[in-house]
Amino acid sequence: xxxxxxxxxxxxxxxxxxxxxxxxxxxxxxxxxxxxxxxxxxxxxxxxxxxxxxxxxxxxxxxxxxxxxxxxxxxxxxxxxxxxxxxxxxxxxxxxxxxxxxxxxxxxxxxxxxxxxxxxxxxxxxxxxxxxxxxxxxxxxxxxxxxxxxxxxxxxxxxxxxxxxxxxxxxxxxxxxxxxxxxxxxxxxxxxxxxxxxxxxxxxxxxxxxxxxxxxxxxxxxxxxxxxxxxxxxxxxxxxxxxxxxxxxxxxxxxxxxxxxxxxxxxxxxxxxxxxxxxxxxxxxxxxxxxxxxxxxxxxxxxxxxxxxxxxxxxxxxxxxxxxxxxxxxxxxxxxxxxxxxxxxxxxxxxxxxxxxxxxxxxxxxxxxxxxxxxxxxxxxxxxxxxxxxxxxxxxxxxxxxxxxxxxxxxxxxxxxxxxxxx
Amino acid sequence: xxxxxxxxxxxxxxxxxxxxxxxxxxxxxxxxxxxxxxxxxxxxxxxxxxxxxxxxxxxxxxxxxxxxxxxxxxxxxxxxxxxxxxxxxxxxxxxxxxxxxxxxxxxxxxxxxxxxxxxxxxxxxxxxxxxxxxxxxxxxxxxxxxxxxxxxxxxxxxxxxxxxxxxxxxxxxxxxxxxxxxxxx
Lengths: 423, 185
What we know:
The structure holds 2 protein chains of 2 kinds.
Chain A: E1 21-23, H1 25-35, E2 40-43, H2 50-61, E3 68-71, H3 75-88, E4 92-96, H4 98-113, E5 119-124, H5 138-142, E6 149-152, H6 156-171, E7 179-184, E8 192-195, H7 200-207, H8 234-263, E9 270-273, E10 280-284, H9 287-303, E11 307-312, E12 314-316, H10 320-326, E13 332-337, H11 347-357, E14 364-370, H12 379-395, E15 403-406, E16 414-415, H13 418-422
Parallel strand pairs in A: 2-3, 2-4, 4-5, 5-7, 6-7, 10-11, 10-13, 13-14, 14-15
Antiparallel strand pairs in A: 1-8, 6-12, 9-11, 15-16
Chain B: E1 2-9, H1 14-27, E2 31-37, E3 46-54, E4 69-72, H2 77-80, E5 92-96, H3 101-107, E6 115-119, H4 121-128, H5 135-146, H6 151-161, H7 167-183
Parallel strand pairs in B: 1-4, 4-5, 5-6
Antiparallel strand pairs in B: 1-3, 2-3
């Protein structure tokens, strides 16, 4: 299968792009998917990722795409279609959000277990109930144990770049794992900003030809995907899968490096901003990372607060050592989670704390739940959080609640009171 | 940083207008942001769209904005929407209406003493494009009030933005932009 076309069939046309395009995050996804020359996209559109699927379908209808596009009857079927096509031996991708992603969950584990390098554009949105179409990270967090590589874009340019890199990372023969590329619903997906795309040829050559591994369509060499293993082999299999996921960090770094050489745009597993002399730091994901940089710049200029920002570009495999290293020299940290924590602390709090617990310096760390269902994360909210952790830094211990809700109306809400732990 | 808020009804082209303005501005080497709040809103529902324009990459993603310009492209929204929300001392208003400025200020007293400009984008779009899509005429009016770009430069840039449409539609939009540019008071 792959790119070998029948004689006489008209090949897809190339699209002339400007040096600077004004694209929203969905268009960035759709364009990168077009340039990747995907063999099969199976999709079921859902807000706010609909324009990714719609945009891709329009490119196909307009003659810019050769691959197959299958509109299926649900997201479960969409990911199932992707699994089938990837096992058959092709480059495969899809996009979804929220409830659609939740419906895919069963098949996400199948995809990673079968070591199929499917790329999923996940445009982050809240999970019902109550029903909400706006952006938070509930769906991203729901997928974090599914065995996929997970990367996160903080703006439309990064959504484009990471979608291109996603194919190259997942399809690397030493990785062969599915890749989830996240971007914020609406805030990134529906906000048009300046994006510098690559030309069609440069983008495709960067990703390279799809390399088949045990394609089911090779009838000379029959193979089985998703066989049954019980206690005899399941554990060994899952251990190998964990090893592959952990080892993928090397490939992720080298793809980031290669991309930097091509575009001068630099990506790291853990991104640090204004951290050289920072005393207080926010750790966040998504568009909030950039908003926090803006707030940190203002606080440095106007209040003399040495504020910085750290973000996990790569969420899985979790960059444990790099997180600890990035935060070694600060005195206080706020971890910002945009997902209802379901009776515990936020994921970033737990994982960043774990990384720091093993390290020499242990800054004071607390947790903020914010922005659920698209609630605006304002500059004022972020500055309030910095003001909070400046207090923690000055006291050298936690003087604020451990877990707070930022931007919530009504009485202040906090959980996991530190005094109870001290007693 | 220049910030613009559009008041529109879903389907009137505020998002397209905001993105079109973004395209034009990006071609001049500036950084832009164009976004909207609509959630699940359907055609006809009141909505807002936004632009940020700056020389530096725009990294602030908050929805909250104190606009430099408020563009109202549906006549009724000047009455029913909170168009003065989060205004600054020098916020400029460009409002689509068939009223004169004096009549409008009498009807909406809270606008008295503010920098208010009126133009009938609805009539202009009906007369030129033949449909109630008042977004491009509003951009013409904005060019006059803000002096952001020379009108001929702006129209040339808009030709590129509109290039996917048939020539007839492009011509009608160009007429609409010029007419609103000349008529805004």
